[in-house]
C-alpha cells in the first residue's frame, strides 16, 4: 500500500491541486509543541590546503567530476593559479564558469566569494561572479558539489558532471575585450572534504577541534555537533532541520543523507531509522555547506505520533 501511495504521489506531482493538497497535509502534520533546545558545538571545515591550491594531482584540462571521484565523494576541488601583472586591467574581473552542475562554490585567494546553485533539472549552467585580483599570483579554488544522480534515464554513466571541459574564463570588467581562458591551464584536483576524511561525523574520532561556545553562523562549510537522548517508544523519529540550508547529517556516525532546505520549509523533516540510536545518548553531527541561514539553534529531534498524526517535540533532557 505504501509503495502504491508513493507511485500515486509521483504521478500526480505535476497537478497543482495535488501539490496544494500535499502541502496542506504537511502543514497539518507540522503542528508541534516545543521541547528543550539542543546545545551545540561547532568546528570549521579545514581547507588550508585547497584554499592554497594544493591538490593530490594535476591535469592541463578540466576533468569530469564523476570520473575523478569514482563515487567516493560528492565533492571535487578544481584549483588553479593566475598571475596578474596589470591590476588596471585584471584587478576587477568577472569569473565565468561553464559547468554541468549542480552546485559551484568559489574561493579567491583563500576567501569565500560566492555560490551558484542550479535548478536540479538543469544539465548545464554558466556561473558569473565579479571578483578582485591582486598583483602577482592569485589562487582560484572552485568546489563542485553533486547531489547524486539526477534521474534514472539511459546512459546516465555517460552524462558529464562538474566543470568538465570548461570553459573557465576571466573577463576584465574595465576592459571587457580582454579575456583570459583558463580551461587548459594547469588544474590541481582534490576529491572530498578534509572534515569527512578525518571523520568529524564520527563521535569516536579524536582530535576534532569542537568549540563549545560562540557557535558560528553565517559561515559556509561549518560543522555542528550536539547530543540527545533516544526518544521512548517505537514511533517514527525525524530531525527538524529548520534554519539550515544545505549539507549532510549523521546520527552516531551513520549518515542519514543530504538535506537541502532553501526557502522551502516543507523539506525540513528527515527520518532517522531507530536502529541508528544508542540505548541512551546519541550524537548528531551536521555539515552545513552554505551557512547563510539562521544556524542550528532551532533544529530539533521530533517523533511522529501515529495515533494523532502529529509531530511531537521530543524533550531532549540532555546537554552536549
Automatic annotation (TrEMBL):
Gene3D superfamilies: Galactose-binding domain-like. The keyword Flavoprotein does not apply. SUPFAM superfamilies: Galactose-binding domain-like. One of its GO terms (molecular function) is beta-galactosidase activity. Residues 221-282 form the Beta-galactosidase galactose-binding domain. Keywords: Glycosidase, Hydrolase. InterPro entries: BetaGal_gal-bd, Galactose-bd-like_sf, Glycoside_Hdrlase_35. It comes from the Eukaryota. Pfam families: BetaGal_gal-bd (PF21467). GO terms for biological process: carbohydrate metabolic process. Its EC number is 3.2.1.23. This is Putative beta-galactosidase. It comes from Medicago truncatula. The lineage of its organism: Eukaryota, Viridiplantae, Streptophyta, Embryophyta, Tracheophyta.
Amino acid at each position: 500500500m505504501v509503495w502504491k501511495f508513493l507511485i500515486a504521489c509521483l504521478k500526480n506531482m505535476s497537478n497543482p491541486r495535488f501539490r496544494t493538497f500535499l502541502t496542506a497535509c504537511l502543514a497539518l502534520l507540522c503542528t508541534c509543541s516545543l521541547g528543550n533546545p539542543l546545545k551545540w558545538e561547532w568546528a570549521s571545515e579545514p581547507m588550508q590546503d585547497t584554499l592554497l591550491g594544493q591538490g593530490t594531482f594535476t591535469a592541463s584540462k578540466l576533468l569530469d567530476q564523476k570520473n575523478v571521484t569514482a563515487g567516493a565523494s560528492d565533492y571535487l576541488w578544481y584549483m588553479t593559479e593566475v598571475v596578474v601583472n596589470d591590476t588596471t586591467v585584471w584587478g576587477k574581473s568577472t569569473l565565468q564558469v561553464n559547468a554541468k552542475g549542480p552546485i559551484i562554490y568559489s574561493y579567491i585567494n583563500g576567501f569565500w566569494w560566492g555560490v551558484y546553485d542550479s535548478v536540479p533539472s538543469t544539465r548545464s549552467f554558466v556561473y558569473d561572479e565579479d571578483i578582485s585580483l591582486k598583483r602577482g599570483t592569485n589562487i582560484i579554488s572552485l568546489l563542485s558539489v553533486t547531489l547524486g544522480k539526477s534521474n534514472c534515464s539511459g546512459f546516465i554513466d555517460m552524462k558529464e558532471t562538474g566543470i568538465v571541459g570548461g570553459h573557465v574564463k576571466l573577463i576584465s570588467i574595465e576592459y571587457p575585450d580582454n579575456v583570459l581562458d583558463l580551461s587548459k591551464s594547469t588544474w590541481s584536483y582534490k576529491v572530498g572534504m578534509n572534515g569527512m576524511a578525518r571523520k568529524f561525523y564520527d563521535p569516536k574520532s579524536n582530535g576534532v577541534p569542537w568549540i563549545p561556545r560562540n557557535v558560528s553562523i553565517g559561515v559556509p562549510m561549518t560543522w555542528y555537533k550536539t547530543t540527545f537522548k533516544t526518544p521512548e517508544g517505537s514511533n517514527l523519529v525525524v530531525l527538524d532541520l529548520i534554519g539550515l540550508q544545505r549539507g549532510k547529517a549523521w546520527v552516531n556516525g551513520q549518515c542519514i543523507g543530504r538535506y537541502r532546505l532553501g526557502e522551502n520549509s516543507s523539506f525540513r523533516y528527515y527520518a532517522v531509522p531507530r536502529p541508528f540510536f544508542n540505548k541512551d545518548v546519541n550524537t548528531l553531527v551536521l555539515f552545513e555547506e552554505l551557512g547563510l541561514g539562521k544556524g542550528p539553534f532551532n533544529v530539533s529531534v521530533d517523533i511522529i505520533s501515529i495515533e494523532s498524526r502529529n509531530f511531537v517535540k521530543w524533550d531532549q533532557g540532555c546537554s552536549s
